[in-house]
Write a structure and sequence with these properties.
The protein is of the alpha/beta class. The chain is built from 23 helices and 7 strands. It folds into 3 domains: 94 residues; 147 residues, no CATH class; 101 residues, 3-Layer(aba) Sandwich (Rossmann fold), CATH 3.40.50. The strands form 2 sheets. The protein has a 4-stranded parallel β-sheet with strand order 2-1-3-4, with helices on both faces. A 3-stranded parallel β-sheet has the order 6-5-7. The radius of gyration is 22 Å and the shape is globular. Bound molecules: iron/sulfur cluster (SF4) (2 copies). The site of one iron/sulfur cluster has 12 residues, from helix 1 and helix 4.
Length: 433
């Protein structure tokens, strides 16, 4: 049976155990994912220890495999047995089901509760950003955080911005200083000009505001009409902690905001690969509302959308500055979207710009590597990627968490490809309004 978040036996331990045996048995016969992540490594080693006697695998063995899954999704596009194959195998979502059953049984952990409240943390922290950022750097506070909520003391955390993206955008829209840009925008805009709803993501709203500014600048430069309706976290951090109810609530809220625009001809564009993945792939599985499929069909990752504009002959080639050599990390949640190398394709439109793609997992993966029990392993997972970022070449990644992880592992400071494109157009960096 296909994976179903809404199945009546979703939380039933017996049904879960039966499905686990079925999936592990198929994987044991296949082993294609043997070197993909710690989950498969532990699973196959344990099966070998048991001389292949699958019925000797215990609940503890299963829990270990589940806990080690960081939901990178890489096993899904690789697997020959995913739907519509008759095996209907969905390894990553089955891992999420394991976490969800655990959370239902024992309650969502304090750690996962804290890590998933991105909107609450962001709203509070941006109001006192300098103090919060300073405190987050302080060793005694990090030790306290590690002891109380289990965030590893050496995990580099994103800095909070004093101004949210939403507040910048509000000023940007009404600023008189924008009149020149508006004239240019209107000249560019035709009746049939493209229209998008910008799903900014929590990371852009509270931490990496400049990526959001660059996205708006580039979209406006290309005559795209942009709307930024109210929105909440996509729900991915809740899913990471097995909190399906809250993931569904967030999906329902965002769908209620986005669907009306899609019905009026807008596309949804997001600069966060995990968020665009969730909206495209999981919203239609989480929500039984037909709007979920509609929104998913019209959702694009930021650079995927620009590649689409280029294909339609609507992307400006008015580049002012070449960008030289760029080492670009393809995030797992973009790879899993099966859309090719859209960021590379768009960046290589800039004259004298060469992009080397590195498609390796950073090991950060949502909230997984923040946890003290996973942090060291996450750096091991990311090692082959970090090695590609040590030669001083300009670095890029679409994923804000992979950016942090690459910085931690190599010292390079990757930027979102949209920031590089904004520079190539010669547009102002970090505009105030
Ligand atoms: S989603 Fe990623 S971490 Fe989880 S089992 Fe698949 S490859 Fe491993
Ligand atoms: S997830 Fe699919 S490809 Fe990977 S080991 Fe299992 S059956 Fe094979």
């Amino acid at each position: 049976m296909a994976f179903d978040f809404n199945a009546t036996d979703f939380y039933d331990p017996g049904s879960y155990a039966k499905e686990t045996s079925r999936i592990f048995d198929i994987c044991n016969g296949c082993r294609l994912c043997f070197n993909l992540c710690p989950s498969f490594d532990v699973l196959f080693k344990r099966i070998d220890e048991l001389d292949g006697e699958m019925d000797k695998l215990t609940d503890k063995d299963t829990k270990k495999v589940v806990d080690l899954c960081y939901d990178c999704k890489l096993c899904f596009p690789k697997c020959p047995y995913t739907p519509p194959h008759k095996y209907m195998l969905d390894f990553p979502r089955h891992m999420i089901r394991g976490k969800a059953i655990e959370a239902k049984k024992h309650g969502v952990t304090l750690q996962d509760k804290m890590l998933s409240r991105t909107d609450l943390l962001g709203t509070v922290s941006t109001k006192a950003a300098p103090i919060v950022n300073w405190t987050m750097e302080s060793k005694p506070f990090r030790i306290l955080m590690e002891r109380t909520i289990g965030i590893h003391r050496e995990r580099n955390l994103p800095k909070y911005s004093s101004q949210t993206f939403r507040s910048w955008y509000k000023n940007h829209k009404k600023s008189e200083a924008r009149s020149n840009a508006e004239v240019a925008e209107k000249n560019n805009r035709r009746e049939d000009s493209p229209k998008v709803v910008f799903f900014h993501t929590c990371s852009v709203n509270y931490n990496d505001v400049d990526t959001g500014k660059a996205a708006i600048q580039v979209l406006e430069k290309n005559g795209v009409q942009v709307e930024v309706p109210p929105q909440k976290c996509c729900g991915m951090p809740y899913l990471d902690g097995g909190d399906i109810d809250n993931t569904k609530k967030h999906a329902a809220y965002n769908l209620s905001q986005l669907a009306e625009y899609v019905k009026k001809g807008y596309d949804v564009v997001s600069p966060g690969p995990s968020c665009s993945y969730l909206m495209k792939q999981d919203y239609p599985m989480l929500s039984q509302n037909p709007d979920a499929k509609l929104v998913a069909a019209h959702t694009f990752d930021m650079m995927e959308y620009l590649a689409k504009l280029n294909k339609e002959g609507k992307l400006s080639a008015d580049f002012k500055e070449s960008q030289g050599n760029i080492t670009y990390h393809l995030p797992c949640h973009l790879k899993a979207q099966n859309i090719g190398f859209k960021s590379r394709d768009v960046l290589e439109l800039i004259p004298d710009t060469n992009v080397e793609v590195v498609a390796k997992c950073s090991g950060h993966d949502g909230t997984w590597s923040l946890k003290k029990e996973n942090f060291k392993m996450s750096l091991e997972v990311g090692k082959p990627l970090f090695e590609k970022f040590t030669d001083g070449t300009a670095a890029a990644s679409d994923c804000p968490l992979a950016q942090l992880q690459i910085e931690k592992g190599s010292g390079a400071k990757p930027r979102h490809p949209i920031q590089i494109l904004r520079d190539a157009y010669g547009l102002e960096q970090d505009p105030k309004e």
